[in-house]
Amino acid sequence: MYMENPTSASTLSKISGSGTSWILGGSSCINLARADVMHQELDEAPEEALMIAERMSLALEGAVLPASESDTVGRVVVVTNTGTNGMPPKSSLVEALGLKTEVDGVVLLAEATIEHKSFAASTGTFCYSEDDLDFIDSDDGDKTNLSKIRATTEIMANLTDHFELNFSNRIVCAPVLYGGRANDGNVVAVLSMRVW
Predict the structure, then answer these.
(1) How far apart are CA 97 and CA 76, in angstroms?
(2) In angstroms, rounded to a whole number, what is the distance separating the alpha carbons of residues 69 and 60?
(3) 76: which residues sit within 8 A by CB, 6+ positions away?
(4) Which end of the chain is more exposed for a tag (fewer CB within 10 A), N or C?
(5) Please, which residues have CB within 8 angstroms of residue 60's CB and are 6 or more apart in sequence?
(6) Residues 146, 132: Cα–Cα separation, whole Å
(7) Mean pLDDT of 32-53
(8) Pairing between β-strand 2-3 and β-strand 75-79 as defined by DSSP bridges
(9) How far apart are CA 130 and CA 15, in angstroms?
(10) What is the C-alpha to C-alpha distance for residues 82 and 2, in angstroms, rounded to an integer?
């Protein structure tokens, strides 16, 4: 997976989590991500995907995204080796995130979910539905974040095969990807997270 300021998967999990890493929760505080998986520099991504990712990154510019019971800073990523059309296989996305196969007897791929999304402007934004937009506070910070999220969504509308990768509620703190395919078939997405 390509991203700005790349780290290991386990470090990304810690800086994306809500005061913790991505974890199962309950009595398990084991990081779901692997320490031996290193992500790559965004500028090394395939050219077409990189061009869209750079535009999205400029638009998103450190926006704080909703994460259920917490918030997180969105990060733009490029994922290769996911096929060339249709929604990407969740196995490819889980592998690109650098997640472990199993933690405390829970097979992470089995808990992953992927669903079709539409990032057309009329459907809200990549991380808020139209109904959610009615409840967003009108303070300046929320307005700024929403403006960045809307601008990013407008760019994402040019992708195809829009999707959201998430995880079942058995995973308390998990990564979330909102993305689609660039013209070259590679995935460009916003990495977020959520806490149940």
Answers:
(1) 13
(2) 21
(3) 3, 4, 42, 53, 56, 57, 60, 188, 189, 190, 191
(4) C
(5) 74, 76, 148, 149, 151, 152, 190
(6) 11
(7) 98
(8) antiparallel
(9) 29
(10) 13
Q: Which residue has the tokens 């929320």?
A: 142
**Residue 172 falls in which region: left (phi positive, over 0), alpha (psi -120 to 50) or beta:** alpha
Taking Cα atoms as reference points, which of 98, 79, 99 lies closest to residue 89? 79
Which residues, listed in sequence order, are joined to residue 26 by a DSSP beta bridge?
none
> How many whole angstroms separate alpha carbon 183 and alpha carbon 36?
31
Query: Within 10 A of 14 (CB to CB), how many other CB atoms are there?
Result: 15
Query: In the structure encoding, which two tokens stand for residue 89, read together?
Result: 């296989």
pLDDT tens digit sequence for 127-184: 877 766 666 655 545 778 888 999 999 999 999 999 999 999 999 999 999 999 999 9
Give tens-digit pLDDT for 60-95. 999 988 877 778 899 999 999 999 899 999 999 999
Euclidean distance between CA atoms 42 and 100, whole angstroms: 23
